Amino acid sequence: MICAEGISSSTREKVLGGQTHFRYLGAYMAFFNIPRRPEDDYWAWTVNGIGGTFITLRPGTDTVTTVLITFLRKDLDISVDEPAARKRLLLDALKGRGTIAHRISTELDTVCDFYFGPMSQVQASTWSKGRFVLLGDAAHCPTPFTGQGTALALAGAYVLAGEIKRSADHAEAFAAYERLLRPYVEATQSQLTPSLIRLTHAKTRFGIAVTRLVQRLLASKMVQRIFKRGAAKRASDTEKKFVLPAYS
């Protein structure tokens, strides 16, 4: 059984519940669509709100605009499991955060594709038990903050399939799959810390002003050229750290 149910996998809880830890990064995330308005163009908009709320509006389809919201929250509130309770928590994070936040708040009652949850990483002591094996976010969710969840899941699926094909049995295949992929996964997860998340979610007017100055600097042509050279080097370093095995 290959389990790819995501970060909240109920099957993983039944089979490996005592061997799975969640590393909370100090923030929650909401993701959903709202009706598109005439003033919505084809650019993404980001807004920093006082208190550590970060809002992004981006083009969806001809009829909807996609909303992504992350906000700081010191404690992990595992009791927030009802849609109404989750929306109340989000409304609190949006309150007094400006025009775009007010627009989102007024649309929230009509949202049908509402995703809301803590930004936590999945850290399992083992990815398999017997004939059961975890894949993707169910095994090692790095959180959307890394931008690496899909890449890790695809690499994991490739390695797992290859090892199943060339191994003598499932136990050997699962062990090889984890041995090859886990160091790369743990290196990706370690790039994020709660302090880094707090740094990207300015809480005061001064902090937001500094954030805007930094954003303008990062968007400059000179810095972008430096980033491109650095990105090429990082891509090369990543290839050296993890090379996809060649399976016949």
Task: Provide a compact summary of the structure.
This protein is α+β, with helices and mostly antiparallel strands. The chain has helices spanning 10-16, 83-94, 99-107, 137-140, 149-166, 170-190, 194-199, 205-218, 221-241; strands at 2-3, 20-35, 45-49, 53-59, 64-72, 115-124, 128-129, 132-134. α5 (149-166) packs antiparallel against α6.
Which properties best describe this structure?
globular; 22% strand; 248 residues; five-stranded antiparallel β-sheet; FAD/NAD(P)-binding domain; 9 helices; three-stranded mixed β-sheet; alpha+beta; 3 domains; D-Amino Acid Oxidase, Chain A, domain 2; 45% helix
Spatial ordering of strands, largest sheet: 3-4-5-2-6
Number of helical elements: 9
The total count of strands amounts to 8
Q: Roughly how much helix do the residues carry, as a percent range?
A: 40-55%
Strand proportion, as a percent range, falls in 15-25%
Q: Low-confidence runs (pLDDT<50, min 5 residues)?
A: none
Q: N- to C-terminal separation? A: 23 Å
Helix-strand pattern, N to C? EHEEEEHHEEEHHHHHH
The CATH topology of the largest domain corresponds to D-Amino Acid Oxidase, Chain A, domain 2
CATH architecture of the largest domain: 2-Layer Sandwich
Specify the overall morphology: globular
Mean pLDDT: 89
Task: Explain how this protein is built.
- By secondary structure, the protein is of the alpha+beta class.
- It has 3 domains: 2-7 and 121-193, FAD/NAD(P)-binding domain (3-Layer(bba) Sandwich); 25-119, D-Amino Acid Oxidase, Chain A, domain 2 (2-Layer Sandwich), CATH 3.30.9; 204-236.
- It has 9 helices and 8 strands.
- The chain has helices at residues 10-16, 83-94, 99-107, 137-140, 149-166, 170-190, 194-199, 205-218, 221-241; strands at 2-3, 20-35, 45-49, 53-59, 64-72, 115-124, 128-129, 132-134.
- The protein has a 5-stranded antiparallel beta sheet. Strands 1-8-7 form a 3-stranded mixed beta sheet.
- β4 (53-59) and β5 form a beta hairpin.
- α5 packs antiparallel against α6.
- The radius of gyration is 20 Å and the shape is globular.
- The two termini are 23 Å apart.
- The model has no long low-confidence stretch (mean pLDDT 89).
